[in-house]
Amino acid sequence: MDKSKIRVIFEYEFRCGTSAAQTVRNINEVCGNDVANERTVCLWFEKFRSGDFNLENEPHGRPETKVDNDELKTLVEENPSQPTCDLAAKFDVTIPTILDHLKQIDKINKLGRWVPRELNEHQKRNRLEACLSLLSRHKDKPFLHRIITCDEKWILFDNRKRSAQCLGKDGVPKHSPKLNIHQKKLMVSVWWSSAGIIQYSFMKPGQSVTADVYCNQLDETMRMLAIKQPTLVDRDRPVLLQDSSRPHVTQRMLLKLQQLDLETLCHPLYSPDLAPTNYHFFQALDHFLQGKILNCQQAVENAFCDFIATCSPGFFEAGIKKLPLRWQNCVDNLGAYFD
Q: Which domain holds residue 44?
């Protein structure tokens, strides 16, 4: 049967509320085995659910993508429960395209929630062993006060969020302007400990965190740490908690750590749920920025400074002190994600 006719049947069955599996059975019973397969029907049904009822094939080739992976990551981490069709609609792309980009940023769907990736058994075991070791070390000799940690984040200029409206039966929702997905943003790099902020810096437009940039930041962090927490530097010695992104594990960085005689804390791969900057600092920053519209780079920098000014002295200590509980949660879940 001509494919264009089969797609008409797909749409008909979809509008009738027929499941993909039943649609395949209905078509193959009438037209012969293997005329339709469930994977193809599922893809077309996903397209119909997104509101696209165009029955023509997508153009071949690789058109220029409209998806900014940084923006996609921000959207997914702000609301991990968003369905794929909603994400595709926001970027005005097809569902297969959004799935490709989600794969590029290591996001997979787990029970209706986007998580960093599907951990294999080896990765779960590494997380489990790392957390057991950290818990044992902390029990023998507490070291949370020695931890310094860091990470980078994109801050959007426009932080408005569209929210649901409670309306009566005949109520008309208020319209809000569609947000620009590809809007301006500025990257901030922040270094802190349980005692507070050590130092932070904003990347210049177009600049990324390379090994050279990261080493310079580490030098500045150690200089500021000697001023703000001299006891930690001279007597206790700091311990660096960082993730395993590329700038953090280069040969240049390893030499820098040796030069500074700085210990790094064991941090397993793909573990943002065990990184205080992710689960504590940036989460609070997102909440503070929600609804704010920042019209220039200086406004972004001022907003970040305002956020730091609102943080109580106990805010930073609380974020670090959550680590043993999160290590235990990871152990209790045998290395799997627990958030």
A: 3-49
